[in-house]
Design a protein that fits this description.
Keywords: Membrane, Transmembrane, Transmembrane helix. By secondary structure, this protein is mostly helical. It has three helices and no strands. The relative contact order is 0.14.
Length: 73
């Protein structure tokens, strides 16, 4: 599996995990049983989403650079 496909697959699953964490956070806030770790629950997938989204952003530019370097540029 290439880096592009791997990053896309991980990004999709992390977005699902982030969505579920936000839903759990909202449910807990409505019930007023606030715990700090519930509030921080969404930060882990959010940080990992940042890494995968930056990877997906950079991959086309890296591919162009690799391609241009091989042609003679």
């Amino acid at each position: 599996m290439s880096l592009n496909n791997w990053a896309r697959q991980v990004h999709r699953w992390l977005s699902i995990a982030f969505t579920l964490a936000v839903i759990v956070n909202i449910i807990v806030m409505v019930q007023e049983k606030s715990a700090v770790w519930i509030g921080l629950l969404a930060l882990l997938p959010l940080g990992l989403l940042l890494v995968t989204s930056l990877t997906l952003f950079v991959l086309p530019y890296a591919a162009k650079r690799r391609g241009a370097g091989g042609i003679g540029g």
